[in-house]
Amino acid sequence: MDKFLTVDADKCTGCRLCEQVCSVMHEGVSNPAKSRIQVIKWEQEGIYIPVICKQCEDAPCMNVCPVRAISRDPEFGFVKVDHEVCIGCRSCVGICPFGAMGYNGDTHQVFKCDLCGGDPQCVRFCEVNALEYVSANRVTSQKKRKGAARQSAAERQAVALG
Amino acid sequence: MALDRKIAYINLTTGDVEIKPIPLEMRKKFIGGRGMDAYLLYNHAPEGCDPLGPENPLIVSGGLLTATCASATARTHVMAKSPLTGLLGSCNMGGFFAPEMAWAGFHHLVITGRADKPVYLWIHNGEIEIRDAGRLWGKNSTDTQWAIRDELDDEEVKSMVIGQAGENLVTYACVMTGIKNAGGRTGLGCVMGAKNLKAVAVRGTMDIKIAHPVDALEHNKKFIDQITGAKVNQIQGALGTPFIWGATNCWGGVRTRNFQYNQMEYADEIEPEAIDDYAAETMGPHHMTGCFGCQVHCRAQYKIQSGLYKGKYDEGPEYTSLGAFGAEPDCKSIETVLTGNHLVNQYGVDNLEIGSMIAWAMELYELGILTSKETEGLDLRFGNDEALLQMVHNICTRTGWLGNVLADGGIPAAEKIGKNAFDYLIQVKGMNNLHSDERATPGLALNIATASRGSDHLRSRPAIDLYHLPEPVLRKIYSSPVPYEGPLSSEHTEYIGKPWQVFWQENVYMAVDCLGICKYHTVFLGATLPNFEDWPEVIYYNTGLEFTPKEIWDAAERCNNLERLFNLREGLTRNDPKKGDTLNHRYFDEPCRRGAPDVIGKRIDRDKFNVMIDEFYEHHGWDQDGVPTTETLKRLGLEKEPTRLL
Lengths: 162, 646
Hints:
The complex is a heterodimer of chains A (about 160) and B (about 650).
Chain A: E1 3-7, H1 17-27, E2 29-30, E3 38-42, E4 47-51, H2 60-64, E5 70-72, E6 79-81, H3 91-95, E7 102-104, E8 109-111, H4 121-125, E9 131-135, H5 136-161
Antiparallel strand pairs in A: 1-9, 3-4, 5-6, 7-8
Chain B: E1 6-11, E2 17-21, H1 24-30, H2 33-44, E3 58-61, E4 76-81, E5 88-93, H3 97-103, E6 106-112, E7 119-124, E8 127-132, H4 141-152, E9 158-161, H5 164-167, E10 175-177, E11 181-183, H6 188-194, E12 197-203, E13 208-209, H7 213-229, H8 231-239, H9 242-251, H10 272-283, E14 288-289, E15 299-303, E16 313-315, H11 319-327, H12 334-347, H13 351-367, H14 385-396, H15 400-406, H16 410-417, E17 427-428, E18 431-432, H17 442-450, H18 471-478, H19 498-515, H20 535-543, H21 549-569, H22 586-589, H23 606-620, H24 630-635
Parallel strand pairs in B: 1-6, 7-12
Antiparallel strand pairs in B: 1-2, 3-4, 3-6, 4-5, 7-8, 9-12, 10-11, 14-15, 15-16, 17-18
């Protein structure tokens, strides 16, 4: 599976619906503290950045786990925690460079994004497409097109000024 | 569960805090949010109490569905006796405050007393603390919020605050949250100031258990598709409320130069598209933002490009800022509108009220009722951008004779200015009208004349009246959940059937205010948007509570009657020009001078207007004086109020 969850922070309106549906989907409760995704804000400047697990290839959480409770899902490629094996040491929470591994104080378990088993609800509910679940190829081709457009515009401007 | 959120009673004089559950039978009767607030106000405000006295309760709430898995449940409602009108004080704001308060464990706060020095409330996961706000006093609305975050060392804290206008007891000071979300109407920021309460800060990580999470999630998706599928919301999402201002100005429904005209001419620079271009230039193509859980994202972001406030970030402007700093003072510069919008957000003052007050003063100045002696040399003519912005500073800081007088609100100011100043004050129940002109739209005129918090468009406006919907469509909307077989007219300049439409809208808006949902998610601007039939499911999936559409209607009607009872108790009488269900004489005497062919020449017919009021009262089960009859109170289960159950 080569699809992954992309974040385009420019498009994010900061509404936090993703946090709401994530916690309802996974926990049956509305509570951003238990959401796998969180929108970090600089309200003074109007900047909103959704933060979510990157499902790293060389995942620090997986590397640091002393009991090998963290592994990669063979079908969808996300990094997952086996709570049968997990000893609750929270090393993964401490080491994740993105703060994407959470800790649930009620169940005493760590939690993280599992891409909702292939149909991420945050993506489904994000009408402005700040979040997308797409193939790697599509992401890079879109970025190439955008980059090329910028370059072409700059070149046209240079010619006009020339 | 949403149903396990609590109510807290906080006495700022004694420091006592009492926390109680909210009984289920109260939910069935008053739902939550504004409806429950009306119950609390009627029960806790002593008759005739001083709005700025310690006994006036300041009630802060979220709705029944706040922060559940329903769409756009961002609204915070605040209620108290109004220092501006002496009647019902009530305001409602978006943002992220009420959801955070719900996660902190609370749906309602009843704040009484008066602190002997500036304080703020810190509410965190079921706990309430009164803290010193000495260092916050004097700060504007955003600096206050960031300072609280610094002090509590938590960037996720949400606060409802006052700026300097509230501290200075400007009678139309706002409560504010975030950059620009304002509980603007009826001056409840002034009530906070009088209590020495600078802010209410909340932070919560408590679960709100969803009764049927899978159904709630799927239903939410369906709701959002319905809401974002409506063209009107798509345009709102692109241009925000300036779009309504632009559209209204086209046909001649925008109040201009106080009340001299009903359309602003040559306003190219402040048309919605121009504002959108400005926002895009300063914030990029994705410059719209929204409130909690809402996909309409109707609020623009911008940075001021020049002048004294160059580089300042803000959000908006909304319809009312275009009225306040555009049409009303007849100023045509986008910089003025955006600067004015920034100033009111920072001072924490109602843009609608301050814009109307200054435009009124401008007309008085041009008429010679005010002179340069009272303005202390300020050339307060229409179209003077500099004088306009100077007056905003003067009012918010109570500087100079005129600034100080205008800060007291329209009716006291008219008394101090004297002569016939009152005749030019475009108000209902002591609160200035929206910067719209209702002379060609009797249904809208009836709405502002009878709105429970004084002149207001968000209490009962049948805005879809302007769409000329075919009668069968109107009948389908307005005959549910209670049958209506009387007349209805697609013609917005007509009088027939409008009292029923206003009555129906009054109940719809009360219902959404009880649920905590934004009005863009109901029949306000879009005829296809959710109403009574759509809410039982969303309530059931999220809370497990069962309501029929008719039960929601009944609860809304009950809450509206409570607001009426409060107003009657505090002195409302039908024909009182200062406290009644009336309009300024200019609505009846001066015809519209501009606009579309079917608007030019229109004014409200006094006799037909009175018939509308009669009919409107009749639909409510009120007598000819607008007082609920004993049978009506019995039907709604209000005959024993005040019952002090909460």
